[in-house]
Amino acid sequence: MQNKLTKILALLVLVFSTNSCDDYLDITKEGEQSSENFFNGQQDYEDALLGVYDLLGTNYLSHIIGEIASDNALCGGERPDDVVDWQQIDDMIHTPDNSSLRSVWQFMYGGISRANYIVEFQDKVDFARKQELLAENLFLRSYYYFTLVKFFGDVPLVVDKRVSVSESQGLERTPKADVYAQIQADLTTAVANLSWDASQPGRVTKGAALALLGKIYLYDEKYDEAATAFQQVIASNKYELETDFSTIFLNNNENNKESVFEIQYSIGVEGASYDFLQGSEGNVSAGFMSPRFTGDKSNWAPYDDGNTFSTPVQSLVDLYVAEDTRLNPTIFNMEAYVTANPAVTFDTRNEYTGYYNHKYMVYQESNLGDPRITHGNNYRAIRYSDVLLMAAEANLMATAQKNDPQDLLDQVRDRAFGDENHRVPANIDNILLERRLELAGEGDRFFDQVRTGKTITIPGFQNDKNEVFPIPRLEIELAGNRWCQNKGYATSTCSTN
After folding, report:
1. What pTM, to 2 d.p., does this model score?
2. Spatial CB neighbours of 157, under 8 Å, sequence gap ≥ 6
C-alpha cells in the first residue's frame, strides 16, 4: 500500500454482487483455497477488507444521479439518447427497467456481501488490529446500506452472513426505519473501536464514523442524536475549513484538513472500459461531467477532455452573489474561459448551458488510459463544511442544542466571503440554501431536497412517487415476484398503490 488506500479485488463469494442473485458454482480441488478456508491470518482479513473498500469506487453513479435528479443540473451528454438511463432520471420518467438504478442496487449489495463475508468469519482468527478492522467493515457496510435506503427506501437487510441463492429468494424488504436502526447501531459500535487518526489516507476514522452516523440520524429526523454526533466531530479539533475554497478539490490537495471521509482514486487502466466502468481505479464521474474540448490538447491545459454530462443550470449560478468565492471553483464558465483563452475550441453537445462542474473537472495527468474514466482525483465524500451545516440544521431542530447553529453557519459563510459582513440568520431556509451553495456538484442535492420536502423546483417531480427510485424489476423477479414495487412505479397487482 502506498500513500492512498490501494484497492484490490479480494477472493470473495458474492450473492448480492455485481451479478446480483445469479447462480454461483464453487468447485475447488483438494488442497486449493476456497471461501470457507480463506481466513487464516490477519493479512487475509486485511485483503478482504480492501475488497469491501473497493466498491466505494462505484460511487460515480450516486454522484451523477444526485445532481441530475435535482434542480442543480441537466443530464447533458453527447446526444439526447446518450446514456438513456440518466436522461430518464433527469426527466423523472425512469422505470423499474432502468439499468443504472439496478447497478446502484448491485454495487451496494456487492459491498454489503463482501462486508458480510468478513462478519461471517470474524471469530475465526484473533489479531491485534481485529476490532479496528471490524469497525472499518461496519462503517463501509453502513455506507452501502445508507445509499440503498436513500435510493430505494425499504430494502432487504442481511447483516450476519452471506446469503445463498435459495435463501435470497426468501428475503423480504426490511422497513427503512429498521435499516436505519441497524446501521445506527453498527456505526455506534464502529465509533467505539476506531481511532481519530487514519493509519493511511482513505481509512475510516472515528470522525468519519461519527459524521456518517450524524448524517443518518439527520435523515431519520433524530435531531438530538444527530447534534450529539456532530458535536463530537467538532469538539475533536481534528478538522478545520480550508482557508481558500478554490483549493479543496485540486488533485494536489487530496485528503486535506477539511476532509472527513474521502474515497480514494488513482490513475490506472485496471480492467476499465465503458462496458465495465466498475473496473476503473479512477474517478469515473469526473470525466463524465467535464467539457468536450476539441483541437490542440495543449490549448486546454490544465484541463482534459470529458463527456459533458451534468451541466449546471443558470438558476443555480444565479444564486451566487458576486462576492461569493465559491462560484468559480464550483461552476466552470465555458464562455468566460474561451474569452480568456481564444485558442480553446469545444463542442457544446446536448443540453449545453455554458457551465460545467468545476469541482470535478478532469485535469491532464500522466495517464495510460482514457482520462474520462481513469481520472485520479478523489471524491470528497464528507467535508467538514458539510458537517458544520448538518450540525447547524440538527441543532436548530433539536430539543437541546449541543452547538450554536448561528456560529456553525457563520463559519461556512465567513470562509465563502472572506469576511464577517455576509452573515445571515441561522434559520432552516438559510441553512438549506447554504448547503446548496456549498455542496453544489457533489451529489447531495437531490437527497437533501427529498428529505426536507423541498422538491417543487425539480422539473417533472411527482410527489408521493419520486421520493424514491423504483426497485429494479429483475431484482423483484429474482426474489420470486414477492416484493411490492415502490409506489407509483408498479405494473402489477402487487404494489403499494
Report:
1. 0.93
2. 145, 174, 178, 179, 182
